[in-house]
Target: 6-phosphogluconate dehydrogenase, decarboxylating
Amino acid sequence: MSETGARADLGVLGMGTMGANLALNFADNGGFTVALGNRTVEKSYGVRDSNPDLAPRLVPTDSIEHMIQTLKSPRVVVIMVNAGQPVDDQIALVLPHLDKGDILIDAGNADFNDTVRREAAVRPTGVHFVGMGVSGGEEGARHGPSIMVGGDRAVWERLKPLLEPISAKYEGVPCVDWLGEGGAGHFVKTLHNGIEYADMQMIAEVYGILRDGVGLKAGAIGDIFADWNTRGLSSYLVEITGVTLRETDPDTGQPMVDVIVDEAGQKGTGRWSVIEAQKLGIGATTLEAAVSARGVSSRRRERAEAARVFGDIALPGAQFHADRDGLGELESALECAKLIAYAQGYATLAEASREFGWNLPLGTIARIWRAGCIIRSAFLDDIAQAYEAGEVVNLLQAPSFRDRIEAGQANLRRVVAKAALAGLPVPALSAALSYFDDYRRARGTTNLTQAQRDLFGAHTFHRLDREGTFHHRWPQV
Ligand SMILES: NC(=O)C1=CN([C@@H]2O[C@H](COP(=O)(O)OP(=O)(O)OC[C@H]3O[C@@H](n4cnc5c(N)ncnc54)[C@H](OP(=O)(O)O)[C@@H]3O)[C@@H](O)[C@H]2O)C=CC1
Ligand SMILES: O=C(CO)[C@H](O)[C@H](O)COP(=O)(O)O
Model:
């Protein structure tokens, strides 16, 4: 119970970065009384004690039983702990104390297959299990995240009054919505992160070109990104690129990025995106390139050895020139590649929607990503409009996108070619270009693949000139 003796409106289980800030957001922007729970119990008291203004609406609890007793019925419990086993453990601890009609939400990142399994396991109890994606990092969780809700639609109607006040707002419209049954919310959040990976990787590749190809210092590159953030590339990720590159390490006086080890962490969402895209037969090649690049980055010692073995073997004299025009070329190339990455992410969402019968509202997804989340950008408004204007086969073919791709593709081509000649790695930018070239080719080359498969495995093929399935008696090899 709160200091005033009132029962709590909901409980948040997990007082890490996201859970603590989400709880404060519920208390602050929602005006809700929130029960706080955590494996390490002291953290719940710490959250209350370090927020005296909100303390009357924050109720630290010492155990699951204590949290349950504190909550109004029907109860709402939000789990916000690390993905995987910790979520299963929390569900196992809380579920026996909940009653029919209570709502149990997993608000962390989750593999949607786990969400589907958990929902099926919880359903017989009459408790409603909801998989819900939350994006926006620490700041977003505290002041307004983008929220992607799955589970039963009727449960969403009950959750709306809790979630709308705490969500980000874009021109006054809450960035939260119900996206589909079952694991739809977590699937969409996963793809949000997959796109985030691709976007970040492309930015890092352009940073690499400017650092290693052009020879600019971090601060100067930060200024370039800050400038780009005023135009078509305007987005949170480009903005923070400028901020991080201009930051100085107080200990050494060097640019902060220059003292950070070049090994990227990853918690799973990028990998899950790529696995699901592959299962659905969608070529999310820029997302794949981004996940792989993080993997390669983590093999730092091996890379150092390879650098010693191979040295600088770029073509002699090949340099990446980027004068004023060259910078414009890079800006345009990054914008074009980013459009392709988003198109791949959306193609994965569209296919999942068909496969799982979700009827995902693709325009709404773009709308709730316009504020609060990590990939928020002006450009998402264009995606929302493209979906609202009519049926979209693939974003690359939507009229507004087609024009932008046509305008940028030559620059992307030049940047990828120059980077390749200069020995600068651009896995995501080149993946974007190759995908585009593959996608726009009416007559591809897998006719040869089919012939080979038929030769060695009698896998059969279709013919251009007649209907049916055929096997050819190829010469013995
Ligand atoms: N950080 C971010 O920017 C974002 C994170 N997320 C997702 O939100 C979730 C939480 O992330 P975040 O707050 O950053 O993580 P933190 O590492 O800051 O906090 C982890 C929380 O999980 C609890 N926990 C970990 N393992 C267990 C366990 N085995 N049993 C019980 N509790 C456990 C911790 O408890 P204790 O204090 O006792 O260790 C702590 O409360 C994750 O799914 C993450 O992917 C989603 C969007 C953005
Ligand atoms: O969900 C998020 C942002 O949207 C989290 O910040 C997540 O941790 C990012 O993924 P990773 O840690 O794998 O880079």
